[in-house]
UniProtKB/TrEMBL annotation:
Organism: Ideonella alba
Stated name of the protein: Tetratricopeptide repeat protein
InterPro entries referenced in this protein's UniProt entry, alphabetically: TPR-like_helical_dom_sf
Lineage of the organism: Bacteria, Pseudomonadati, Pseudomonadota, Betaproteobacteria, Burkholderiales
Highest taxon in the source lineage: Bacteria
Length: 366
C-alpha cells in the first residue's frame, strides 16, 4: 500500500463530515485505479454512485466521474475517459472545487496528448497550472508527466529529463508510488519508440537497448510489487521491441505472439501494423522466410493507417528491408521512399510540437 493511500485512509478515519469522507473515498478509489487495482476501484465506484443521490453530495457528484475516468483510462486507454474527466471538471467548477478542477484538466491534457490533439492539450495544461495556486502534488506531478512525455515526443530529450525529475519530486513528496511507476513506464516507452525507429532505419543502438531492457524489467518488477493489473499488454510489447533491436529473434516473436492481440484491444491498436512487421522481420531471421514475406505483404496496406508519422516511417523502413531480402527491389525502393517522407513529416511535427510546448513553458516555467 502506498503512503498516499495510507494518508487518505487516515484522513477518512479522522473526517467528521460524512459528505467530505465520501469524497475522500472517491479520491482513494481513484488512487487504487492508478495503481492497477481496478476491481476494487470499480466496486467503490458502484457504491459511491448510489451515494450521489443523497442531499448535500454535490461535491461527491464531481468526484464520481473523475473516478470513472480513471477506471476507463487504466482498463484500456479508453477515449471515454476524456468525457468523464470533462464532466468532473465542469461539476468541480460549479461546486467550487478548484483542486479537482485542476486535476481533471491535467488528466484531460493527458487524453489530448494520447489523441495527438496538441492545441487543446496546451490549453488544458495552462488552465490547470493557473488554477493550481496551492501547487498540489497530484496536479503538479500529472502536469509535469504530460509535459515530459510531450517534450520527449518533440525530441527535447534534455527538457524531458528535467521534467521527469520534477515528476519524481512531486510523487515522492506524497508517497505516490503509482505516479513513480507511470513515470518509469512512460520514460521507458519513449526510449523504446526512439530505439525502434532508429533500428528500423538501420541505426542499431545495442548498448542503449540493453539499458532500456533493464529499465523495462524494473518497471515490471515494480508493477508486480504494486499488484498492478492495468494495461497488461504494454510491458510485453515494450520488451518485444527491445528484443528486436537486440536481435533476440525467438524471444521477440514469443512476446509478440502473446501480446499483440491484447494490445489491439487495449488502446494500442495503432501500433499493430508496425509490431506485426517487427515480428515478420524476426521470423525472417529465424528462417521462417515464406511466412515472414506473407505477413509483411499482408500488413503493407495497413502501414499508412497508423496515426503517427514515426510509426509509419518505421513500418515502411521494415517493409523496405524485408522486401529487399525477398528480391523485390522495386517494392523495396518504393517503401524506402515512403519511409523517408514519413521521417521528414515526423521531424516537421516535432518542430511544431516544440513550439507549442514553448507556450506552456512561458506560462508555467519549470
Amino acid at each position: 500500500m502506498s503512503r498516499l493511500i495510507d494518508g487518505l485512509d487516515a484522513a477518512i478515519a479522522a473526517c467528521r463530515d460524512p459528505a467530505q469522507a465520501d469524497c475522500l473515498r472517491a479520491e482513494r478509489a481513484a488512487a487504487q485505479a492508478r495503481s492497477g487495482h481496478l476491481a476494487e476501484a470499480r466496486f467503490a465506484l458502484k457504491g459511491l454512485r448510489v451515494l450521489t443521490q443523497r442531499r448535500g453530495r454535490e461535491a461527491l457528484g464531481a468526484w464520481v466521474p473523475f473516478l470513472a475516468g480513471m477506471i476507463e483510462h487504466f482498463e484500456a486507454l479508453s477515449p471515454q475517459a476524456f468525457t468523464h474527466f470533462d464532466d468532473a471538471r465542469q461539476r468541480a467548477a460549479a461546486v467550487g472545487l478548484p483542486r479537482l478542477q485542476a486535476l481533471s484538466l491535467a488528466w484531460m491534457a493527458l487524453c489530448h496528448f494520447n489523441a495527438r490533439r496538441f492545441a487543446p492539450m496546451v490549453d488544458a495544461m495552462v488552465a490547470a497550472g493557473r488554477l493550481d495556486t496551492e501547487r498540489d502534488p497530484g496536479v503538479q506531478a500529472r502536469l509535469c508527466l504530460v509535459r515530459a512525455d510531450a517534450s520527449r515526443l518533440a525530441g527535447l530529450h534534455e527538457r524531458a529529463q528535467r521534467l521527469y525529475l520534477n515528476v519524481r519530486h512531486w510523487a515522492m513528496s506524497q508517497g505516490d508510488t503509482a505516479m513513480l511507476s507511470a513515470m518509469a513506464h512512460n520514460r521507458n516507452s519513449g526510449q523504446v519508440d526512439r530505439l525502434g525507429l532508429l533500428d528500423a532505419l538501420g541505426e542499431r543502438r545495442e548498448d542503449e537497448a540493453r539499458r532500456a531492457l533493464l529499465e523495462a524489467d524494473s518497471c515490471s518488477q515494480l508493477d508486480l510489487g504494486l499488484g498492478n493489473e492495468g494495461l497488461g499488454a504494454m510491458p510485453p510489447v515494450m520488451k518485444a521491441r527491445l528484443y528486436t533491436v537486440l536481435q533476440r529473434w525467438g524471444e521477440a516473436v514469443a512476446l509478440y505472439d502473446a501480446a499483440l492481440d491484447e494490445a489491439a484491444g487495449s488502446g494500442m491498436a495503432g501500433l499493430v501494423p508496425h509490431m506485426g512487421l517487427n515480428r515478420a522481420w524476426c521470423r525472417w531471421h529465424l528462417g521462417e522466410r515464406q511466412r515472414a514475406e506473407q505477413e509483411a505483404r499482408a500488413l503493407a496496406p495497413l502501414v499508412d493507417q497508423q496515426p503517427d508519422a514515426d510509426d509509419r516511417a518505421a513500418g515502411h523502413a521494415r517493409l523496405a528491408a524485408l522486401l529487399a531480402r525477398c528480391g523485390d527491389s522495386a517494392a523495396s525502393a518504393h517503401h524506402q521512399a515512403l519511409a523517408q517522407a514519413a521521417l521528414e513529416e515526423f521531424q516537421a511535427f516535432q518542430a511544431a510540437l516544440a513550439a507549442q510546448l514553448a507556450q506552456v513553458d512561458a506560462v508555467l516555467g519549470d
